[in-house]
Amino acid sequence: MILKREYFYGPATHLAPDLLGKILCRRTDDGVIRARIIETECYFGEDDTACHAHKGKTDRTRPMYESGGITYVYLCYGIHSMLNIVTGEEDHPEAVLIRGVEGAVGPGRATKYLKITTKDNFLPLEEKSRIWIEDDGKHAPEYYALPRVGIDYADKADRERKWRFVVKIKE
Q1: Per-residue pLDDT tens for 109-155?
Q2: What radius of gyration do the chain's Cα atoms show?
Q3: CB atoms within 10 A of CB 55
Q4: Could you give the CA distance from residue 35 to residue 37 in angstroms, rounded to a whole number?
Q5: Given its phi and psi angles, is residue 21 left (phi above 0), alpha (psi -120 to 50 degrees) or beta?
Q6: Residue 129, exposed/middle/buried by CB under 10 A (0-12, 13-18, 19+)?
C-alpha cells in the first residue's frame, strides 16, 4: 500500500521511527527500485539548531516549510545527495533524513543506490512523481534510538537528542 500524503502530516519525531521497515520506491527509466528503510534521523523546527531551517526560510530550505509529504533533497559536501521526507504542518520546518536502506547504509549511499539526486527535490511522495513510500504490512522492526551524527555545529542539547533511529539487526 502506498502511503498517502496525510500520513506525512505527523511530526518528524513520530514519523522517523515509524518509517523504519517501510519501503522507499524510486521509478527510473529501467524500472522501479525498492529498498526497505533501516535508518532515519529527524530534524524538528527552527529551534532545533541541527535543522537546516534553524536560521529561517531560504531558497534551500523552502521545501521544509511545506506541509508533509514531499521530498527535500540537498547536496552534502558537493557530492552526496541527501533525501529527506518533509513532515508535519505547513510553516513548521521539519523532516526525516533517510540515513540507510537495506543494501546501502549511509545517506549518500542510499540515494546513490536509489538513483536519487537533487533533481528529485520538492517532489510529492506519489507514484506518479518517481518517489513514494510503501507499507507492505510487515510488523514494525525493533530499533535503537541514538544521538544524531554529523551535526557538530549544533548546540550540545541538540547533538545529544536521540533522534536517530536504527533497525536492530537480528543475528
Answers
A1: 999 999 999 999 999 999 899 999 999 998 889 999 999 999 999 99
A2: 15
A3: 10
A4: 6
A5: left
A6: middle
Q: Is residue 145 left, alpha or beta, with left meaning phi > 0 and alpha meaning psi from -120 to 50?
A: beta
Residues with Cβ within 8 Å of 62's Cβ and at least 6 positions away in sequence, in order, are: 122
Beta bridge partners of 165: 40, 145
Round to whole Å and give the CA distance between 162 and 69: 23
- CB-hemisphere CA count at 13 Å for 122? 8
Q: What is the mean pLDDT of the chain?
A: 94
Helix ranges, the chain (H): 12-18, 107-114, 156-160
3-state secondary structure the chain: CECCHHHHHCCHHHHHHHCCCCEEEEEECCEEEEEEEEEEEEEECCCCCCCHHHHCCCCCCHHHHCCCCEEEEEEECCCEEEEEEECCCCCCCEEEEEEEECCEECHHHHHHHHCCCHHHCCCECEHHHCEEEECCCCCCCCEEEECCCCCCCCCHHHHHCCCEEEECCCC
Select from 78, 24, 86, 97 the least CA-distant residue to 61: 86
Q: Which three cell numbers stand for residue 117?
A: 539526486
In the chain, the amino acid numbered 108 is G
